[in-house]
Amino acid sequence: MSQEQQNTIPAYSYDVLRHELLPLLLGEEEEMILYWAGKSLARRLNLQSPEELKHFFYEANWGRLSLIKNKRNGGLYEIESTCTDPSRPFTLEAGVIAQTVEKDKGLLAEASCTVFKKSPLTLHIVVEWDKKDSVHEIR
User: Which end of the chain has fewer CB atoms < 10 Å from its terminal CB, N or C?
Assistant: First the structure.
């Protein structure tokens, strides 16, 4: 088996799990469950900074992540995705980004995702936070 074939099998396997099995298991609540799963995953992996987030997206083969705009109460991230189906939800990615920003800034953060371009599939993740909503961790 060639190196190229070895690299495509895991991608295919991931696509089957993410785009065929998860919708069957999660049903109508798929988008919301994936969002909260993404937040939980970022906490579990202890992602704390934009650099760690970029590295995680690269390692997970989720695509190239870039911070496009950073404002006082929010930011705009762009993902050039490895996925090719723009009809699928990308709330898992949005949740991971939201939780990492929350940890980095110490403020509650929420994110939403839209398809910006279909070829190559490019997503925009808008993250918003309020400086009045600080995160108080229990130690």
Answer: C
CA 39 – CA 15 distance, rounded (Å): 21
Nearest 10 degrees: Cα torsion 38, 45, 18, 4: 140
Number of Cβ within a 10 Å radius of residue 2:
7
Summarised one tens digit per residue, pLDDT across range 77-100 is 999 998 888 899 999 999 999 999
Contact 46, 39 (CB under 8 A): no
Neighbours of 13 (CB within 10 A): 10
Burial class (CB in 10 A: 0-12, 13-18, 19+), 97: buried
CATH architecture label of 31-134: 2-Layer Sandwich (3.30)
Q: At what angle do helices 91-105 and 30-44 cross, to 10 degrees?
A: 40
